[in-house]
Amino acid sequence: MARLPYLEKSDLAPEDQPLLARDINLHKILVHNPAAARAFGALGGYLRHGTTLDARLRELAILQVGWLARSPYEWSHHIKIGHDFGVTDADIAALIQESRGEASALEPLARLVLRAAREVHDGPGIAPATFAALQQQLDPASLTDLVLTASFYCAVVRVLASFEMDVEESYMPYLQKFPLPA
User: Fold this and answer.
1) CA 173-179-118 angle, 5° bins
2) Eight-state DSSP code of residue 121
3) SS3 56
4) Would you state the torsion angle of the CA atoms of residues 177, 28, 84, 97, taken in this order, to the nearest 10 degrees?
5) Looking at the predicted structure, is the pLDDT value of residue 182 above 90?
6) What is the pLDDT of residues 8-19, one digit of tens each?
7) What value does the CA radius of gyration of the chain take, rounded to a whole number of Å?
């Protein structure tokens, strides 16, 4: 059970109701502070729809953070979103292998993106060797977007955990198919 009640459009002032255009628990909690919800949504929206980073690589980075944080909400939502942007079940299985330190069939750039996301998650940031390797593969704009994506989603998983956000029933099949480790 979330630590704050989930708000509905009817709980909000008319000018704030569009903040619940996506009917998900994350938004239903963030609208307790509409200004914060807007700021959060601005960066999240850019990373989802405006980034120069390849969408599949972006989703793999987000999934890597969700896996490491053991965030059921983030993991389940971005398995679904990842599928929409070209992430396959084989990619997810490979991400899990990579997270365990095992070899996978992922292409070198995807493995490098996952390593960068792990380094951002574990802190303090991307290691010099990883960053140098990324510079050989990504243009500066895409590299900036990768750093922002991994960093933003490290914050997102902490928001989710702090509010004890519930996973919506419609996302539970993703957790059942790809359960997080205990």
Assistant:
1) 120
2) H
3) helix
4) -40
5) no
6) 999 999 999 999
7) 17
Write the CB contacts of 5 (distance below 8 Å, at least 6 apart in sequence).
none
Pair 146, 140: CB distance under 8 Å: no
With residues binned 3-state (H G I as helix, E B as strand, rest as coil), the percentages for the chain, rounded to 5, are 70, 0, 30
Contacts of 112 (CB under 8 A, 6+ apart): 130, 133, 134, 137
Q: What percent of the chain has pLDDT over 90?
A: 98
pLDDT in tens, 109-119: 999 999 999 99
Count the residues in the chain: 182
Q: Coil, helix or strand for 81?
A: helix
Rounded Cα distance, 158 and 174, in Å: 20
